[in-house]
Amino acid sequence: MAAEGTEGIVSQFAGVYREWAPRASLREHVRCLWINDLRAARSSNLRVVPDGCVDIIWTGESLCVAGPDTEAILTELPCRSIVVGVRFHPGTAAAWLGQPVGEIVNTRVPLAAFWRHEAPRLTDGAAARGCGRQVAEGLEAFLAGRLASVGSVDPGIAFLRRTAGDNRAPAGLKLDQLAAHMGTSERTLRRRSLDVFGYGFKTLDRILRFQRFFRLAARAEKRDLATLAARAGYADQAHLSREVRRISGITPGDFVVQMQGSLADSFKTAFAGHM
């Protein structure tokens, strides 16, 4: 069920959030590693907004997989939490998990459901490391060790992600055009998108456009919504407002207000190299 109203702080604004690039060998698959230090958070009620990605998350108590979201997820974490994650690029996680991610949309699933034998060892290792960055680096090392068995990212999936994410696709691009470019049928394109993204290309396009707004707003010196709408790829400010509310459950203005909180500068710095 979609989150309503302004309950819950957007997770990246609630604590001190940082993300950084993975080692070079994983960058085709992994978008970033991240830490959200919530020990001084203004609220334990968090709003996790869609980003097109799948994450492996250490909550401080357990490891879980956060499936691709189509709506904001409201969650509550224990006070003084330090949450750590590995975030896959859209479309890459299914190969690592061994099942279509369309089965875990808008859900949080224990890592053991996918990696039955490895999950206990990874959980014990995360608990023993304690330090957030060391937990992330332990997960990164495990992924690097499995990389040879996973192989390279499907070029067609990488093309779809770039097409949705770069804001340079021709206006009104149709699914049949995408399918023709990839040398496949429209039906196969839809099925493949559901398997690897969790939803169809049009939904992916909407979510990645929302993320462009999110990041542009975090970096902008002056957060004029009409300008941000144009730069993010929306038809106008009204279009921005409808889509942001539909995807995140809050308005663009709510984002700006939360960004202007006491931890906004930390968030802004965290995203400096990730546009």
Question: Approximately how much beta-strand content do the residues carry?
Answer: 5-15%
How far from one another are the termini? Answer: 30 Å
Summarize the main sheet: 6 strands, antiparallel
User: What is the overall silhouette?
Assistant: globular
Biggest β-sheet: strands ordered side by side in the sheet: 2-3-8-5-6-9
Q: What structural class do you assign from the helix and strand content?
A: alpha+beta
Give start-end ranges of low-pLDDT stretches. 1-6
One letter per element, helices H and strands E, the order comes to EHEEEEEEEHEHHHHHHHHHH
Instruction: Give the fraction of residues assigned to helices.
Output: 40-55%
Q: What average pLDDT do the residues reach?
A: 86
Give the strand tally.
9
| Alpha plus pi helix count | 12
Radius of gyration: 18 Å
Task: Describe the overall structure.
- The chain is an alpha+beta fold and 275 residues long.
- It has a domain at 9-150.
- Helices cover 45% and strands 15% of the residues.
- The chain is built from 12 helices and 9 strands.
- The chain has helices at 11-14, 93-97, 118-129, 132-150, 155-165, 175-182, 186-196, 201-219, 225-232, 237-248, 252-259, 264-270, and strands at 9-10, 16-20, 30-37, 45-48, 55-58, 63-66, 73-76, 82-88, 108-110.
- Strands 2-3-8-5-6-9 form a 6-stranded antiparallel β-sheet. The chain has a 3-stranded mixed β-sheet with strand order 1-4-7.
- It is globular, with a radius of gyration of 18 Å.
- The protein starts with 8 loop residues before the first strand and ends in a 5-residue tail after the last helix.
